[in-house]
Structures are given as structure tokens and as C-alpha cells.
Amino acid sequence: MNLRQALTFVTVAELGTVSKAAVRLRVAQPASSRQIIALEQELGLRLFDRVGRRLLLTGEGEQLIAGCRLLLSSVSSLKEQAQLLRQGDTGVLRIGASPQHIESVLSPFLHRYAERYPKVEIRIREGTGSEILTMLERGEIHLGQNLLHAVRLDDQHFGSLPLGPVQLLAACHPAMPLGPRRSIEIADLAGLPLLLLDSGFGFRRAFDAASRMSGLKPTIMFESRSPHTLLALAEAGHGIAIVPSQLQCWRYDVRIVGLMHRRRVLQEPLTISWDKRRPLPRFATDYCAMLAAHMRKTFPITRPTEPAPPKERRSAPRKQRPARQAGR
Fold first, then answer.
1. Which pLDDT value is given to residue 3?
2. In 3-state terms, the chain is what percent helix, strand and coil (to 5)?
3. The pTM is what?
4. Cα gap 146→203, rounded to integer Å
5. CA angle 25–76–276, rounded 5-degree value
6. Contact 178, 255 (CB under 8 A)
7. Are the C-beta atoms of 179 and 157 separated by less than 8 Å?
8. 129 contacts 97 by C-beta, under 8 angstroms
9. How does strand 48-51 pair with strand 54-57?
10. Residues facing 268 on adjacent strands
11. What CATH number matches the domain at 165-269, 3.10.20.740, 3.40.190.290, 3.40.47.10, 3.40.1160.10?
12. pLDDT tens digits for 13-68?
């Protein structure tokens, strides 16, 4: 097996057709077909079954794919290490993050990072919790931002740095019956129409876990992959959006309330993770430290709405005594 065969095998397995794999690899389709045929002949195994127009891995192919990915990741790591030795503070840093993290945290932070490392090219991949973990495992990104308990990281393979807590917030039209306080018990959401991120988000899994802990059976009105869709619906009075405190909510006319369980604030630690089997360049480790310092100064992005001050009581005017008539 050579590296070209391994790369073709993994690409066909991910895309499902030889033609799509050939486009990604920028080679002719017959050449990709020959690579697969030669690999099957060398191994003495059938790696794919054709189902309709797609190629699906056989049982043998399923067992070999992980080893091929590890092989390609190791080769990529060696190339990156050689590049770092040659170029020092110059290179490419690939990052995976959620949409709200990119909008509220990375958009201002990347300018600050570029001042220190102007020759480092940042490439950002958007994803949810499980998607970001998959990118890390496949070596597609160097660093991945996630909620700590949203995915299970193998401590032997992955390192992580805490960035700060993300609080669970409820955003709603001011007329919604959530009471006058800045925070409420999550159990008090029972029976109210909720607007939630879909289950692919780590934040959603954190909310589901908190709901189970409190005995809440949420009434789900709508699920979305876009947090701002939830805020727009909440602003229009269609329900209560459950959003993270790292999301920018100032554009919307909504009331923000923190969620608690038994008077404890519901929040999840946010981390940035990496694969310890792949050496990180200095500009990547510095990225983590600089990002943590930036977030300590700026978090939380959104806070619960301050309660309206009580209306001042106007004292009633005193009744003036009638003036005494002259002569009395």
C-alpha cells in the first residue's frame, strides 16, 4: 500500500463515489478507480460494496479505514513538523468552532492575534460539538472549541485548556411570563414554548442534561441550527429561546434571564482542545493562551437583563387648611 492508494481509499469512503473522490483529489476518475483496484488486489480483500450509485465499505474496509486515516494523519504531521522547523513563526493554523463562537469571540480576537503572528494564516471550520471532535480525530484541524461535557475526549489522546464558563440563558419577549427576576429555575420553563438549537450542538446537549436533572419535560416549539433564528422568533413572541451567554443578543429586543437549578447557575465550561499525538507549533499554543486571556476580559458576551427600577411613588399633595375668615 502506498500513500496515494491510502488517500484514495479514505476519500472514496468519505464521499461515496469514485467520481467525487477524483474531483477532490484533482485526478482523473480512471486513475482513482485503478488505485482502488490495485489496493484490493494487493490486500486480497474487497473494500467496497456498490449499493445503487454509492460505494459503501465492506466489513473488511470498515476495519482498515481507521488505520489508513492514522497513516495519513501521521504523514501530514511529519510534513507540518518539517515546515515548522524551516519557517519558525510562519504557517497555517486550522481551527474548528461553533457559529456563535466565531461571531462573538473570534471576529474581534483574530485581529489581536494577527498583530503578534502576522505570517500565520488562520483557516476556520464551522461545526457543532460532535463535528468538531471528528475534525480533530481526522487531523483536519489543529484546535477545536467545544463545551467540556458536550463530547467525551480521550485524555490519552487529547489535551485541552479551559476558556471560561458559558451560562444557559432564556431570551424572550418582555411580555412572556418569566417573572421579574434576572434568573429563574429551569423547572419553571415547564409548559412554555421553547426554541432550541438542534441536537448536534454541544450547548443543546448541556440543556437536555440540565432538563433531565431538574425533571423538566420541555415543550419544544422549534429547533434550528441558527441561534439568531431562535432570537428572531423570541423577539416576535413565538416562544422562549434557550441560548448560550457567548451569543450576541443586543440586536434583538428581548429580555434575557439566567437559568438555575436549585438556585445554582447553570453553566458549562468552554475549552479548546488538540490532539496530543500531533505536535503543535508555538503559534498554536500561543493562540490558546491569548484566546483564554481575551475571554477572561470579555465574558460573558450577554448577561441577564437588569430588572426595571420600581416606579417612584409620588406623594399625594397635602390638603391645605382653609384660610380663616377675618374676624374669627
1. 87
2. 40, 25, 35
3. 0.65
4. 9
5. 135
6. yes
7. no
8. no
9. antiparallel
10. 166
11. 3.40.190.290
12. 999 999 999 999 999 999 999 999 999 999 899 999 988 888 999 999 899 998 99
Domain pair 1-73 / 165-269, same fold: no
> Burial level of 108, CB count in 10 A (0-12/13-18/19+)?
exposed
- Specify whether the backbone of 69 is left (phi greater than 0), alpha (psi in -120 to 50) or beta: alpha
The residues spanned by each domain of the chain are 1-73, 165-269
pLDDT of 101-112, one tens digit each?
999 999 999 999
d(CA 71, CA 144): 21
**Segment (H or E) for 114:** helix 107-116
DSSP secondary structure code for residue 274 in this structure? E
* Assigned C-alpha cell, 23: 474531483
Report the C-alpha gap between 164 and 265 in whole angstroms.
14
* pLDDT tens per residue across span 192-209: 999 999 988 888 888 999
State the DSSP string of 289-319: HHHHHHHHHH--SS-PPPPPPPPPPPPPPPP
Residues constituting the chain: 328
Dig out the grid coordinates for 302 from the structure: 450577554
Residue 14 C-alpha cell reads as: 468519505
Q: C-alpha grid cell for residue 53?
A: 450509485
Fold that domain 1-73 belongs to in CATH: Arc Repressor Mutant, subunit A (1.10.10)
* Amino acid of residue 79: K
